[in-house]
Amino acid sequence: MGKEGSPAISDYGDLLLDAICVVDSQGKCISVSGACERIFGYTPEEMAGKFMLDLVHPDDRDRTLQSIDRVMAGYLQRYFENRYIRKDGKVVYISWSATWSEEHQVRIGVARDVTQRKFDHDELVGRELLTDGPALWKISASPRRLIAPDGVSISLSRQDHIVLLTLMSGGESVTRKAIVEALGEDFLDYDQRRLDTQMRRLRRKVSEACSYQLPVSTLRSIGYCFHEKTKILR
Q: Is this structure's pTM higher than 0.85?
């Protein structure tokens, strides 16, 4: 409890919409708080001692292992999505943010149930594919996201969105100057290494979220080219 009998932050844990999961270096669950039972179907007591990977949908295990390796290497994982099999056998889509504590030798993850959002999105994409023909790369401003041809939705920061929107609407080539100016920066004062770093980060973000590579080619001394078909969602 906090001062004068008021609840401490820890007292609110079970009211969270997200589940906070702590696992050891072998992937065994140590503790879970928050919306554990609502998301996974297991009580926190039932989750303790389980290997989290055993609950992952078989088709997502290889990709999940790659994500775990990155987290264990010190990379802060944000918005990684995979599927879990609930206690009742139903499939649930989870969005994870996770980090590794070297000091305590535990991996801490925050799990958010995005199943309904996923189904709503897949229904929307399905309707679009009926009229679009072949699957396209799509970009949306509200919410800011990039949608891969397999339907995976990737959250974008404001800067990510501006860069990709400029590339996807720029035709066969987009100059560095055009991208920098779209960002509201002065091209002569802008450090070009920042743009290279931005592009590497975007490529990594896409490859970590889905089975596709970001279809952006670097045009030496010119800029970049988004070389697959796109659609801009308003």
A: no
